[in-house]
Amino acid sequence: MITIETEIAAPVETVWAMWSEPQHIQGWNFAGDDWHCPNSVVDLRNGGRFTSTMAARDGSFVFDFGGVYERVEQYVAIDVLLDDGRRWTTQFEVTASGTKVIESFEPENQNPEDMQRMGWQMILGRFKAYVEAHKG
After folding, report:
1. Predicted structure pTM score
2. What was the pLDDT predicted at 136?
3. Residues 75 and 13: beta-carbon distance below 8 Å
4. Containing H/E element for 28?
5. CATH value at residue 26
6. For 3-53, what is each residue's pLDDT tens digit?
7. Residue 78 is part of which domain span?
8. Number of structural domains, the chain?
9. HEC states along 48-116?
10. How far apart are CA 68 and CA 72, in angstroms?
11. What dihedral angle (degrees, nearest 10) is formed by the CA atoms of 61, 48, 99, 125?
12. Which of 17, 96, 113, 118 is the most exposed place for a label (fewest CB within 10 A)?
């Protein structure tokens, strides 16, 4: 498992909403400025599905990233079985200054683990910036 985390200066209710609502996901779910998330579909419940479309802004590459929610515990955790069979867990912990988000995921076999960690951490960093800019 690879684990990454960040602390966000916002209440857990805000962090949860921006993590799980499609209109917000489209605002942060990409690693760099040359990518974007033009579509997001979320059925946030045990057994529900999600799909986010990841696309290069120049149109050179597009793929869907999706899976099934195996456990949804509001404001606490989301466990996912990704479409490629890997597991991904996101935890939300209330802290004195806001909310800590901790993600753990099984690495895929196509890219080095340090590259995967860096990419996921970049997306998590973009999420932090998005929440802190839009929390009010």
Report:
1. 0.93
2. 66
3. yes
4. helix 22-28
5. 3.30.530.20
6. 999 999 999 999 999 999 999 999 999 888 999 999 999 999 999 999 999
7. 2-134
8. 1
9. CEEEEEEEECCCCCEEEEEEEEEEEECCCEEEEEECCCCEEEEEEEEECCEEEEEEEECCCCCCCHHHH
10. 10
11. 0
12. 96
